Give the backbone structure.
Amino acid sequence: MEEIFQHFRPEEREFIDQVSGWRMEVEDRYAPKLTDFLDPRQRFIVQSIIGHQGDIEMAYFGAFDEAERRRILIYPSYFEPVEEDYQITVFHLRYPSKFVQLEHPDVLGALLSLGLGREKFGDIRLDNSTAQFAIASEVEDYMRANLTSIGKVKVYVEALNSTEMLLPNEEVWTDEMMTVSSMRLDTVIASVFNISRQKSAALINSGKVKVNFTIRENISFELHELDLLSIRGFGRFMIRAIEGRTKKDKIRINIGRMERKT
């Protein structure tokens, strides 16, 4: 187990222990185990620990096409998962869209205010007057009973079928190779957006940088593969792969940069 820990951040140790526990549970019970919604970095950790080890397999599903947040099913090799096994319900929000426009933070904030953790919700999709979100089916009754407004706006929730779901947001991801002197947060952001280290550090210190949906204010925070970054006012990118070092000892990385369609 210690060999596994050395490849990840110290703060990820608790999650790694949890994943190891899931694997043991499936091995002992020889029955499937369903996780909450996980982000790309968490899924990478699960893949690294579970992989295809002996009789244990894994698969994931997020309801929406190209979902960012997905539930993982860890299961014995005899089991053949279907969509229903992931226990995800997608809801549509009805609200007076002629008078107010809901944004992603509005919907997410309202869902979190119900007292449920972020891990119980999947992607949130918005398109003009339409708002949809995925939720773990085991908490949908609680959500229905308690989500009656967002701010001062009255809302009504309705379950959707797969043919009514919104497609991925209008955005394009472009891959790009670059070299950086280190995987420090301030260094990588400065390189990706071609800004000074001082400006990069200021963005981090002012709470404008999220890594895997969590605000990071430590400029020396070390980035790893499949980390997803969001920088307010600049955009989003992902560390797709760390490709090794150049002859000048620079680190070669492959990033995916998100650009919205115009």
Q: What stands out?
A: The longest strand covers residues 235-245. The helical segments are 2-5, 13-29, 40-50, 104-112, 140-146, 185-193, 197-205.
